[in-house]
Amino acid sequence: MASTAGKVIKTVGKVIKCKAAVAWEAGKPLVIEEVEVAPPQAMEVRIKILYTALCHTDVFFWEAKGQNPVFPRIFGHEAGGIVESVGEGVTELAPGDHVLPVFTGECKECIHCKSKESNMCDLLRINTDRGVMISDGQSRFSINGKPIFHFVGTSTFSEYTVIHVGCIVKISPEAPLDKVCILSCGVSTGLGATLNVAKPPKGSSVAIFGLGAVGLAAAEGARLAGASRIIGVDLNPNRFELARKFGCTEFVNPKDHTKPVQEVLAEMTNGGVDRSLECTGNINAMIQAFECVHDGWGVAVLVGVPSKDAEFKTHPMNFLNERTLKGTFFGNYKPRTDLPSVVEKYMTGELELEKFITHSVSFSEINTAFDLMHKGEGIRCIIRMDG
Question: Which residues, at least 6 apart from 159, have a Cβ–Cβ distance to it below 8 Å?
């Protein structure tokens, strides 16, 4: 760390020039550019990113097919890094600390943060349209004086980034950042949806709709909870064998059946599964996930984000027959309070992260990560910032 410490002393309070992958236009390959990263202002932290990963959310907003296009922009929100410097008022973090940036925050002061039942911080809740810092409405990134916009307050596709302190989780320096970086979004979302919201009893049956990264994390949560049957539901049978590593015991491809998948699952489980988790955002899958749970005690949890015009339609009797429908955001984890314990689950061997990481590329090859996701290959691709 001596060289890092030396660099910290030289750069504190100064603009840092570094490499960043800039999205100049929607859907166009990212370009590695030299950007200027301003020092952190009050309640902000500048971080040296060591590893970052590509999440489907990055791709969704990079394509900008159904949202407000905000460009030029630096994407990225799953990452691990080291604090380079802190702004005024930051007391809980110091240069050299190992951290995970998170797309949603925890101010610890608002009504949500003070509630034991919510993690939806009023101040730092995810905002995909905002491309600037909340303190002054300005970007900390620029190229030749022209601002480059932030993404969900993190922008980790840059060697250095500036983030509000409430969106930064301090973790053990013993935790390998190239592994635990994936806990800052998708894995925690799926894992927490199962452990914190669905809460399957030991020996129960669980259906997972969608076997992407979030769905596999939900299955991992069911495995940790001791579910006896974990049924993966997906239209892509190529995902089934991989899903066995995450605890899935059997699979259903809706294309293989003429009857609705909720009926198939009810027949397989003597009336319905005990818990289900919907991890695709497809409105039909959401309805199926609810209607496939057992009456009397069944709980369905919606994890995927639907299209803005989607409408959830089901007969009210499904509720009157004592089925429960819940939603979750980031697995109901309060980032700063709860994520260190999730990292600890990995450190003790309870939670396995290596199996989520199927590819690794250097920073200069970041567009390869986008290509892999478009092809549906692998689960998580780690991007090494030193390459």
Answer: 18, 19, 20, 48, 49, 363, 385
Average pLDDT over residues 208-218: 97
Encode 52-80 in three state secondary structure: EECCHHHHHHHHCCCCCCCCCECCCCEEE
The C-alpha atoms of residue 179 and residue 181 are separated, in whole angstroms, by 6
> What is the Rg, in whole angstroms, of the alpha carbon atoms belonging to the chain?
21
- pLDDT tens, position by position, 30-76: 999 999 999 999 999 999 999 999 999 999 999 987 678 899 999 99
Angle, CA 112 vertex, CA 213 and CA 185 arms, to 5°: 15
Q: Which amino acid is at 148?
A: I
Q: Which two tokens stand for residue 225?
A: 């909870």
Question: Catalytic residues, which ones?
Answer: 55-57, 77-78, 107, 110, 113, 121, 125, 185, 380
pTM exceeds 0.85 for this model: yes
Determine how many CB atoms are found less than 10 A away from the CB of residue 237: 11
Which of 277, 288, 119, 266 is CA-nearest to residue 198? 277
